Amino acid sequence: MLRLYDYFESGNAYKVRLLLTQLGLRFEHVELDIVKGETRTPEFLAKNPNGRIPLLELEDGTFLAESNAIQWYLADGTPFLPDDPACRARVLQWMFFEQYSHEPYIAVVRFWVFKGEADQHAGEIDAKRAAGYAALQVMESHLLEREFFVAGRYTIADIALYAYTHVADEGGFDLAPYPSVRAWLARVASQPRHIPITFSDWS
Amino acid sequence: MLRLYDYFESGNAYKVRLLLTQLGLRFEHVELDIVKGETRTPEFLAKNPNGRIPLLELEDGTFLAESNAIQWYLADGTPFLPDDPACRARVLQWMFFEQYSHEPYIAVVRFWVFKGEADQHAGEIDAKRAAGYAALQVMESHLLEREFFVAGRYTIADIALYAYTHVADEGGFDLAPYPSVRAWLARVASQPRHIPITFSDWS
């Protein structure tokens, strides 16, 4: 059975949990506390030398890291990833946008707030907020005339961007000026088999 | 014909230039100076709302952004991207590693040095250097017993990681403690049709 090394508060891990659930795939769930350093132990570093969750252990005992690479692996050949080459490249474009221009700002500020370290990062937080809002504006423009990010339907590009956008308020981001983003968040949340980031009943 | 919006000093753009050349694909080359703001003009933002190069204009006049998404689009179906699903996911894993755990440190410090802004970022540069060295260490461990990153052969994962690693010294990174990385750099540079980042004869 697939085994997911996870951390409850992580939006990156939530992407994989959500997709596994929507695909109806069973998996074993292993919770690690990143704040307590449980992903930097020698035992975990032997699984992922980059020391990060989510990490998926495949049926053959090998490991796959990086939330969006895991999503691609699981979604290929399913309705969550289109077949058309240009559409597939655009799914990747938005997933790389998420990891480079969105997550390092929106997720990182949320994590600082979550750990009670916002004051300690006061010197950096304004620049992070500005870059996060710039990412939200790019999303808003794209969604003005679109229901989903790519190919007019729900794909792993939407899951990738939903993960931290829907909890951006926890980092103090105000989504009020982004009506198209808010409408898209509601569309994603209404997809079949959707689970919230707080879902934890893996029994 | 394909049209590449480029910036000579960019390792991200170099990935695409190198792959296009190795694939033997002809393309039109449009140089934009990011330091002078040429990727933030209304005209360019209409092409890529995220205001970044490289940007590839496809034959149908649409645009594709994000260096590694462009690489995927060009390489799929060629020897630069394996067919096996697990290998393809691992290529993506390393490309996401590059954009999240490598480029924001190794490329950003190089860019600060290039722009003569190292002093101005003195407060951040030590943390960036440490994170860059951590990425080099992850690469070193992986390459200890491997010739290339995935599937035992040269793929777009290698191009993605080569782009900024081979010029890391320009940001003050010392590669001496990473012999496997240096041997891999030499293997990449000896591939057929390799061009250096300084190559600019697009006539």
Helix-strand blueprint:
The structure is a homodimer of 203-residue chains.
Chain A: E1 2-6, H1 11-23, E2 27-31, H2 42-47, E3 55-57, E4 63-65, H3 67-75, H4 85-114, H5 122-143, H6 156-165, H7 179-189
Parallel strand pairs in A: 1-2
Antiparallel strand pairs in A: 1-3, 3-4
Helix pairs in contact in A: 1-3, 1-6, 4-5, 4-6, 5-7
Features:
homodimer, 203 residues, alpha+beta, Glutaredoxin, Glutathione S-transferase Yfyf (Class Pi), Chain A, domain 2, 2 domains, 4-stranded mixed beta sheet, globular
Explain this structure to me?
Two copies of one chain form a homodimer. Chain A has a four-stranded mixed beta sheet, with helices on one face. In chain A, a hairpin with a 5-residue loop joins β3 (55-57) and β4 (63-65). The first copy, chain A, has helices spanning 11-23, 42-47, 67-75, 85-114, 122-143, 156-165, 179-189; strands at 2-6, 27-31, 55-57, 63-65. The first copy, chain A, folds into two domains: 2-75, Glutaredoxin, CATH 3.40.30; 85-189, Glutathione S-transferase Yfyf (Class Pi), Chain A, domain 2. Chain A contains seven helices and four strands; from the N terminus they run βαβαββααααα.
